[in-house]
Design brief:
This protein has 11 helices and 13 strands. It is α/β, with parallel strands linked by helices. The protein has 2 domains: 115 residues, Rossmann fold; 124 residues, Hypothetical Protein Tm841, Chain: A,domain 3 (2-Layer Sandwich), CATH 3.30.1180. A 6-stranded mixed sheet has the order 10-9-8-13-11-12, with helices on both faces. A 4-stranded parallel sheet has the order 2-1-6-7, sandwiched between helices. The longest helix is centred in the middle third of the chain and has 16 residues. It is globular and about 55 Å long. About 5% of the residues have low confidence.
Length: 279
Amino acid sequence: MKVKVVTDSIADLPSQVVEELGITVIPLLIRFGTEIYRDGIDLTADEFYRKLVSSQDVPVTSVPPPAAFAETYDKLAEETDQILAIILSSRLSGTYDVARQSIGLMKRKCRVEVVDSRWATMAQGFIVMAAARAANTGANLDELLAITQRNISRVDFRAAFDTLEYLRRGGRIGRAQAFLGAMLRINPIIGLKDGLVEPVSRTHSRAKAIDYLYNFAMSFSHIEELAVEDTGATDDAEKLVERLSAKFPKERIHRSKMTPAIGTHTGPGLLLVAGMGDR
């Protein structure tokens, strides 16, 4: 039986990739005022970012309930006896713990392995895609675990903020920091290290921030996968894709709107480049 691959909505996988590779995606939850939405299902990315700009409510995210994972595992267990779940960094969310603990709630017998990707966004997505492709060629669960662990060290991303206001709203930085950032036109660049967000640089204009993202992509000596994502910064994202296409086939650059569960914390205007390959 073919191994079934599961992930969460933070992987930012385009819908056509999910369908083509047969990946199951479990959505995180977003509370916006009194309403609760399933990430990417009940509220599209475009709808979310319009609502984010116009609303005074500060959205918050929460992990999927254990039943969401257990029911998914049980449904997939009707078709397979092996499941691999690749989940966003356990240092960013409790989703990994829930995914693992939910195995005990299953009604069917099936081997389920849950892996902490230590990543998010399309960096996580690339790890999931590689596992799903291997599963579709007949690799067993142990082989997929080895492939996944190897690829965890082969992905990376950088993201540029256009505004610090939404980090302030979410309580992640103070009002003074947000005000100073706006006054100085600071565009911070972030990445992940050991599963945690860390600042890696800062630029003093949007143009320089985009230059930084381009140079980051070019720092790979060999690129297998490349993605450009945004939270309502479509024009900047498309221009960056055109620029990158001089070095990497445009048709192979994944374009993705960052999931609302991420946009909740970053706000609109975030631009991200993720890659998988050799550095």
